[in-house]
Amino acid sequence: MMHPALAVSLGDPAGVGPELICAAWVRRETDALRPFFAVGGANLLAAAARQRGLALSVQPITDPAEAAAVFPHALPVLGQDEAPYRPGAPDTIGAHLALSSLTLGTRLAVKGQAAGIVTGPIAKARLADIGFRHPGQTEFVAEACGIAPQDAVMMLAGPQLRTVPVTVHCSLASVPGLISQELICNRARITAAGLRRDFGIASPRLAICALNPHAGEEGRMGDEEQRIIAPAIAALQAEGIDATGPHPADSLFAPHARDSFDVALCMYHDQALIPLKALDFDNGVNMTLGLPVVRTSPDHGTAFGIAGTGQADPGAMIAAIRMAGAAAARRRLHPAD
After folding, report:
1. What is the pLDDT along the chain (337 residues), one digit of tens a residue?
2. Which domains does the chain have, with CATH numbers?
3. Which of 105, 136, 191, 310 is most buried (CB neighbours < 10 A)?
4. Where does residue 242 rank: exposed (0-12), middle (13-18), buried (19+ CB within 10 A)?
5. Hey, what's the torsion of the CAs at 141, 143, 145, 147, to 10 degrees?
């Protein structure tokens, strides 16, 4: 019996998501991708493929179980919702398709009918206009899984680096008041468990970033390292987690330093995303740890400005599909991890 295929949601249909899904299918053999199916927009995907000059067939399916057999010769698409293909011109119709695609794909993953979900990039403002109340897709998928938002951890992963932002979408001014020993420990525990479960790293090495320049210079440039971060690291070490730091972030991502850890926990959004995108922009993946289902996403946005021009690189979408497929396969082989 064939294993379930991955579900791939479209993201905003006016963005680069649809054409990159098609480009990933075209490279399914060269990039050794496990079977996947797109959720909704069969006609839209066919139009996106034509616009990009891709030779592929789109085949509607009525059951996720059909996807694996269809995948070798056509892009399987489940669901009848559609929207006109207007790259670079987001609208309400497209937002409704993006939401229905995300909703159905997530539901199938939660029910085990899909091996996991890869989410295409959305326009949060467009979704908010139609009533989407979540900060992002991470929180949406977490809620569908019955997981509290604080227990769903965003990890950015590329060939050269993995990072986790301890605080995510908040102002820089609010970060010192948000970080706490409890928050750092919670993120670190979930991260360590995720690396063991989905990547097979038996003893993950966690490098914990400082908040302030030079790790605070013993309190001269801020005392969060002494008051919060170092005690959190000591608590993690007492639990048997291989955590080190606080490390000055300006030197942690140098080539000679990256070999010393499996993931870096960073105190704020840009501290985590700048090095990841500088090193692995076209292959960066956003993976949610702490969920009972596998969820990944390409680590880039909708790119409305280049949608439909053929300029968008499919590397991150391919990497997200590959990472989701590998994690799902490992969970099948090691269900007790």
Report:
1. 468 999 999 999 999 999 999 999 999 999 999 999 999 999 999 999 999 999 999 999 999 999 999 999 999 999 999 999 999 999 999 999 999 999 999 999 999 999 999 999 999 889 999 999 998 899 999 999 999 988 999 999 999 999 999 999 889 999 999 999 999 999 999 999 999 999 999 999 999 999 999 987 888 888 999 999 999 999 999 999 999 999 999 999 999 999 999 999 999 999 999 999 999 988 999 999 999 999 999 989 999 999 999 999 999 999 999 999 999 999 998 876 6
2. 1-152+291-337 (3.40.718.10), 153-290 (3.40.718.10)
3. 105
4. middle
5. 120
Residue 302 CA to residue 166 CA, distance in Å, equals: 24
* Helix pair angle (42-52, 17-26), 10° resolution: 70
3-state secondary structure the chain: CCCCCEEEECCCCCCCHHHHHHHHHHCCCCCCCCCEEEECCHHHHHHHHHHHCCCCCEEEECCHHHHHHHCCCCEEEECCCCCCCCCCCCCHHHHHHHHHHHHHHHHHHHCCCCCCEEECCCCHHHHHHCCCCCCCHHHHHHHHCCCCHHHCEEEEECCCCEEEECCCCCCHHHHHHHCCHHHHHHHHHHHHHHHHHHHCCCCCEEEEECCCHHHHHCEECECHHHHHHHHHHHHHHHCCCEEEEEECHHHHCCHHHHCCCCEEEECCHHHHHHHHHHHHHHHCEEEEECCCCCEEEECCCCCCCCCCCCCCCCHHHHHHHHHHHHHHHHHHHCCCC
In the numeric block, the tokens 């509290």 are attached to: 148
In this structure, the strands spanning 36-39 and 6-9 are parallel
Sheet with 205-209: strands ordered across: 58-61, 75-78, 36-39, 6-9, 117-119, 295-298, 285-289, 153-157, 162-165, 263-266, 205-209, 242-247
